[in-house]
Write a structure and sequence with these properties.
Keywords: Amino-acid biosynthesis, ATP-binding, Diaminopimelate biosynthesis, Kinase, Lysine biosynthesis, Nucleotide-binding, Transferase. It catalyses: L-aspartate + ATP = 4-phospho-L-aspartate + ADP. Belongs to the aspartokinase family. InterPro entries: AceGlu_kinase-like_sf, ACT-like_dom_sf, ACT_Aspartokinase, ACT_dom, AKii-LysC-BS, Asp/Glu/Uridylate_kinase, Asp_kin_monofn, Asp_kinase. The protein has 427 residues and is of the alpha/beta class. It has 2 domains: 256 residues, Carbamate kinase (3-Layer(aba) Sandwich); 149 residues, VC0802-like (2-Layer Sandwich), CATH 3.30.2130. It is 33% helix and 25% strand. The chain is built from 12 helices and 18 strands. It is globular and about 75 Å long. The protein starts with a strand and ends in a 17-residue tail after the last helix. Bound molecules: adenosine-5'-diphosphate (ADP), aspartic acid and magnesium ion. The site of magnesium ion has 4 residues, from loops.
Length: 427
């Protein structure tokens, strides 16, 4: 008998009808002779609605209360889903993150998993029930408080449970047919990828491809969990994320062996750009700036430092989550004297577009083609950053979709068919 972990995202359980549809799918999987553990997200845009509600009440809500609030979205859907399964004549038991043994650190809103001991879930499954677990939440070992793991974290709950329960596969059910060469909401002719290496998937997720939570890909890679991303609205085979030992690429007949292999294009519009001007060009200034930022638990992404001017000063720009911009500026201003800079300039929202593919490693032409596509589309480039298998640039946020489309076409990734988006608002 196989044990299957299935995760259903918000748009798959957005209303009562959807919950019933998902329940049928779960019951079918069980009836086919499998044990099933389900991880469920909050219904539709519930998490965003809860965030809006909190913002109407407080501009700086206590993070402990925020996590209790946000974790309630997933609790609603898990109980409703269990009821829907009972309606179909099967039994199910739902568990909150803490009941399911998801033990995390105490960082509210960004909690990391320390231990997973899903004893109660295992017992429920052994007794013949479907086990249902609320996504993206846990309990801090230290404070015993409820924690959440960050937006999109239910994918990581699913993978962590799959690892702890030694599941045969972790299926991530969403509102598109799998991982595509670009976001199908932006590029209608994006192509579904049948298999992607976990290395490329990691870069895509890190660069903003939100169909999988970055940490879920890292976790799956570390524990060898087989990931299958697919639609809850169709029976189609989705995308398999394959671990490294099977990172081989299948070359179709007639295809040149040395063709640069691009997996896809990721984009992100959640970052802002902070520029610090007139920083003294002496050793230790970057260390001071980035230590201060790190102490505030702010993740930075791209960094660029200009060459020093005759004035012996330089400018440092970096990108960071737009929501952290205010905090970063406050911290830097508090340390203005000791750092000795002149001014701060903050752009709250910029666009980031990234080209990802393990095959670009030995292909110098890839960046040139990428920049040419942007030039031909009349798109100006802000910052640039690269890894061995990725090129990213910052653009005007208004031009981001155009940039993604231009690059997708330049790398001949367009499919003849239109990609299907079954539900969701893309929020
Ligand atoms: P869920 O609620 O199921 O967790 P998400 O909204 O988190 O779903 O992720 C699914 C969405 O990810 C899709 O609707 C799509 O718009 C977006 N997306 C972005 N890039 C890609 C990509 N390369 N392939 C597939 N989906 C993508
Ligand atoms: N409901 C949470 C969110 O919207 C977690 C998740 O769906 O993965 O971010
Ligand atoms: Mg998601």
């Amino acid at each position: 008998m196989s044990l299957i972990v299935q995760k259903y995202g918000g748009s798959s359980v957005q209303d009562a009808e959807s919950i019933k549809r998902v329940a049928r799918r779960i019951v079918d999987t069980k009836k086919a002779g499998n044990q099933v553990v389900v991880v469920v997200s909050a219904m539709g845009d519930t998490t965003d609605d809860l965030l809006d509600l909190a913002a109407d009440i407080s501009s700086h809500p206590p993070l402990r209360e925020m996590d209790i609030l946000l974790s309630s979205g997933e609790r609603m859907s898990m109980a409703l889903l269990a009821m829907a399964i009972h309606e179909l004549g099967e039994t199910a038991q739902s568990f909150t993150g803490s009941q399911a043994g998801m033990i995390t650190d105490a960082i509210h809103g960004k909690a990391r998993i320390i231990e997973v001991s899903p004893k109660r879930v295992q017992a429920a499954v052994d007794e013949g029930h479907v086990g249902i677990v609320a996504g993206f939440q846990g309990m801090s070992r230290e404070s015993k408080d409820i924690t959440t793991m960050g937006r999109g974290g239910s994918d990581t709950t699913a993978v962590a449970l799959a690892a702890a329960l030694n599941a045969d596969v972790c299926e991530i059910y969403t509102d598109v047919d799998g991982v595509f060469t670009a976001d199908p909401r932006v590029v209608r002719t994006a192509r579904k990828i049948d298999t992607i290496s976990s290395e490329d998937m990691l870069e895509m997720a890190a660069a903003g491809t939100k169909v999988l939570h970055l940490r879920s890909v890292e976790y799956a890679r570390r524990f060898g969990v087989k990931l299958h991303v697919r639609s809850s609205f169709s029976e189609k085979e989705g995308t398999w994320v394959i671990p490294d030992e099977s990172d081989k690429v299948t070359i179709k007949e007639g295809e040149p062996l040395e063709q640069p292999i691009i997996s896809g294009i990721a984009h992100d519009s959640s970052e802002g750009k902070l520029t610090i001007t007139g920083v003294p060009d002496v050793p230790g200034k970057a260390a001071e700036i980035f230590n201060r930022i790190a102490e505030a638990s702010i993740n930075i992404d791209m960094i660029v430092q200009d060459v020093s001017m005759e004035t012996q000063t330089t400018n440092i720009s970096f990108t960071l989550p737009g929501a952290d911009g205010e905090k970063a500026q406050r911290i830097l201003l508090e340390n203005k004297e000791s750092i000795g800079f002149q001014n701060l300039d903050f752009v709250p929202q910029v666009g980031k577009v990234s080209l990802v593919g393990g095959g670009m490693r030995n292909h110098p032409g890839v960046s040139a083609r990428f920049f040419t596509a942007l030039r031909d589309a009349g798109i100006n480039i802000g910052l640039i950053s690269t890894s061995e298998i990725r090129v990213s640039v910052i653009t005007d946020v208004e031009l981001l979709d155009k940039a993604v489309q231009a690059i997708h076409t330049a790398f001949e990734l367009d499919s003849d068919e239109e990609a299907k988006v079954y539900a969701g608002t893309g929020r």
